[in-house]
């Protein structure tokens, strides 16, 4: 695919030009930001089994990472502080290294069946405090560390994006077999060849999931 050339005449470069494209926001949208976890935010977090966390490194390169566990996996230490367990992964540590470089983070909480989402912005740190980690053990396995977020802004996001995407609509589900397996895609992207039949490679990944989820 040839590289697309962006026309500089149509680039928005300042906030005045940006806001000139849109009508002013309505009063509720302007006022909805809170600076602590109210009861609605706490209820939302208690029900959420999934979130995305946005971070950036020292050079400003952005990254978004998914985090998931049984509903309520994020601990609310007080009305301004959250703790997110770090479960076993691929050990790239992108999110964790970014937090060390740039503590500002954004969180997006999702609840299956809810079209609204909860957004939280704040500053993060990495903690290995047993008092934080031990209550987050699953199957007898305690996380090595937790991402502790000091809340700066909290607000509920409207349903438009999830309704447009039909994210929870069973009729919109796609057949996973329409694309290759994860291992096949990784082999293709890295130029590696499978050392055994792909069904065994894929089964090996499923076995790894079983052994290392926690």
Automatic annotation (TrEMBL):
List the Gene3D superfamilies hit by this protein, alphabetically: Electron Transport, Fmn-binding Protein, Chain A
Boundaries of every Pyridoxamine 5'-phosphate oxidase N-terminal domain copy: 37-158
Among NCBIfam families, the record links this protein to:
PPOX_FMN_DR2398
Q: Which protein are we looking at? A: Pyridoxamine 5'-phosphate oxidase N-terminal domain-containing protein
Tell me which SUPFAM superfamilies the record gives. FMN-binding split barrel
